[in-house]
């Protein structure tokens, strides 16, 4: 089973009712309701099940800021960085880091592609279309690749020691953080 660290929250007073509704609501009803919401159609004329599902959505919050690379995660990190401005002052250097799994031989190896030779300076990769299909079939590995890339950049370029949660003794390309 796939787990994307998505959490549901609700008021404690509604917990028993909400959990019962979550278990008994059919996926087809949610799909029909989501189609109506996406098309911005009028919500009049909903079936009883769709109305109950809509009521459920009004009482449940989805928390997905734990998914690395997701929009909510990016917003969470952005807000966290802005909070540091008040404490440390405005940053003097900005870094944009966006590893693309579509063009990465490491991502392909993480997807169990054994034909990629990482010891080669220019490994032979499948066509761009095939790589895009691999990415579409395995988005969870893309998230793992993103996290691996960020961890590697912080560890090897910036000298961050994740086990001690501080800069390593030798530091990185900018010295000790």
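-> sequence recovered:
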């Amino acid at each position: 089973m796939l787990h994307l660290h998505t959490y549901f929250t609700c008021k404690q007073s509604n917990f028993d009712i909400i959990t019962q509704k979550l278990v008994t609501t059919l996926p087809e009803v949610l799909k029909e309701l989501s189609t109506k919401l996406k098309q911005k159609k009028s919500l009049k004329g909903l079936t009883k099940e769709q109305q109950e599902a809509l009521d459920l959505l009004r009482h449940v919050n989805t928390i997905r800021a734990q998914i690395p690379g997701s929009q909510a995660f990016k917003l969470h990190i952005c807000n966290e960085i802005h909070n540091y401005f008040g404490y440390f002052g405005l940053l003097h250097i900005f870094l944009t880091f966006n590893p693309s799994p579509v063009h990465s031989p490491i991502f392909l190896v993480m997807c169990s592609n054994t034909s990629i030779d990482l010891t080669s300076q220019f490994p032979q990769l499948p066509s761009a279309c095939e790589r895009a299909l691999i990415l579409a079939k395995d988005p969870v590995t893309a998230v793992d690749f993103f996290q691996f890339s960020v961890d590697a950049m912080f560890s090897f370029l910036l000298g961050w020691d994740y086990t001690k949660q501080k800069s390593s003794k030798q530091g990185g390309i900018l010295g000790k953080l």
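The helical segments are 15-24, 27-38, 48-59, 71-88, 105-110, 128-137, 139-157.
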